């Protein structure tokens, strides 16, 4: 293990970032971006999640800094395969696995709390320093502040201020998942408080965007070039990572139980399931689309993503019954794959205009 690195890599929005921060490390999301050569196929099947393959391509190319360790949340089979391949490609980095429950009942919260506690102990052992509850609470408060600040920034943007379009917000999401967040919070507050410029030029149709992975800021500029203004998103590389409810910490209660419940209660991805309400994810998407006053909804999902492939028929039917225009797209994390849908996107926007 490279003891000089203070970075802990991760790939999933369910990663407990506050624990990484509290242990004295910096969370570093390995995003599926860049132009690393396609080498993942030497270890993984070709018909596998593009997110996983592009992250592994970056690992082959050493296209990011050295890491002290890499956290893999057991969210799907493809992510488990990535964890196995990582140990071959980057054997000097400690691989840490976190099992993630598929439900959000009390048993699941208790189980995930134990996983987080084990994770905290692992980081403490790596660092050679004890990790106390006060450090964890301070880190939770910091990430709560980041979440609240990002929500304020989006509200300012949706009110008409032009801070660089929705692509600028995605850049901040990417920075918040790869940089120390203290200075970023202050930078965001300054942007929010500064006098605002005029609205974006042109006419745009407000659109709600959901899916899994879309980290390229230029993708949002592309949507704008087609006449769509993304007023809200539900993406694991977007608002889902910094959209948890602020925690009202109770010193008398177990900190890991509180953190586990908070993380599992955040906006879910398709792999999470509520047995008491199987359509909850669909209902949540409809609610968010209506709340942000979107005229239409675009769903962007990755090829070979089994959790979303299983959910999309129900999503399509629910939106049809609700009379909400829906466009479903499929891609491979690249701007090129979105560009191939330009005619469909423009026709969709024109239909609503």
Description:
The chain is α/β, with parallel strands linked by helices. It has a domain of 122 residues: Rossmann fold, CATH 3.40.50.11890. It has 13 helices and 8 strands. A 4-stranded parallel sheet has the order 2-1-3-4, sandwiched between helices. Helix 3 links the parallel strand 3 and strand 4.
Task: Give descriptors for this structure.
353 residues, alpha/beta, Rossmann fold, 4-stranded parallel β-sheet, 13 helices, 47% helix, 13% strand
Strand and helix layout:
Layout lengths: L6 E4 L6 H6 L3 E4 L20 H12 L7 E6 L2 H13 L4 E6 L6 H22 L5 H26 L7 H11 L4 H13 L11 E7 L5 H9 L2 E7 L20 H10 L15 H12 L4 E7 L3 H17 L3 E6 L3 H5 L2 H11 L1
Parallel strand pairs: 1-2, 1-3, 3-4, 5-6, 5-7, 7-8
Summarize the entry for a quick read.
The protein is 47% helix and 13% strand. By secondary structure, it is of the alpha/beta class.
Using the CA coordinates, give the radius of gyration. Answer: 20 Å
* Fraction of residues in H or I helices: 40-55%
CATH topology of the domain at 7-128: the name is Rossmann fold
What would CATH call the architecture of the domain at 7-128?
A: 3-Layer(aba) Sandwich
Count of DSSP H/I helices: 13
């Amino acid at each position: 293990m490279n003891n000089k690195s203070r970075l802990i890599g991760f790939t999933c929005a369910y990663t407990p970032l506050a624990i990484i921060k509290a242990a004295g490390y910096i969370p570093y999301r390995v995003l599926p971006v860049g132009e690393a050569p396609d080498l993942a196929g030497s270890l993984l099947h070709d018909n596998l999640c593009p997110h996983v393959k592009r992250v592994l391509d970056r690992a082959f190319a050493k296209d990011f800094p050295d890491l002290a360790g890499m956290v893999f949340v057991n969210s799907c089979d493809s992510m488990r395969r990535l964890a196995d391949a990582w140990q071959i490609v980057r054997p000097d980095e400690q691989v840490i696995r976190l099992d993630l429950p598929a439900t959000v009942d009390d048993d699941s919260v208790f189980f995930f709390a134990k996983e987080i506690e084990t994770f905290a102990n692992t980081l403490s052992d790596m660092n050679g320093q004890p990790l106390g509850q006060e450090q964890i609470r301070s880190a939770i408060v910091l990430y709560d502040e980041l979440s609240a600040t990002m929500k304020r920034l989006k509200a300012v943007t949706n009110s008409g201020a032009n801070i660089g379009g929705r692509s600028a917000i995605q850049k901040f999401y990417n920075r918040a998942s790869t940089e120390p967040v203290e200075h970023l919070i202050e930078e965001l507050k300054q942007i929010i408080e500064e006098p605002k410029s005029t609205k974006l030029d042109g006419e745009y149709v407000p659109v709600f965007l959901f899916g899994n992975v879309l980290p390229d800021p230029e993708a949002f500029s592309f949507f704008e070039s087609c006449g769509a203004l993304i007023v809200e998103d539900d993406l694991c590389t977007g608002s889902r990572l910094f959209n948890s409810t602020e925690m009202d910490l109770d010193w008398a209660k177990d900190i890991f139980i509180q953190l586990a419940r908070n993380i599992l209660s955040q906006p879910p991805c398709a792999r999470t399931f509520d047995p008491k309400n199987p359509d909850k994810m669909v209902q949540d998407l409809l609610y968010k689309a209506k709340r942000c006053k979107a005229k239409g909804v675009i769903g962007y999902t990755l090829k070979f993503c089994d959790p979303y492939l299983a959910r999309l028929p129900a999503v399509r039917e629910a939106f049809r019954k609700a009379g909400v225009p829906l466009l479903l797209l499929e891609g491979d994390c690249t701007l090129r794959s979105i560009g191939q849908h330009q005619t469909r996107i423009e026709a969709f926007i024109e239909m609503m205009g």
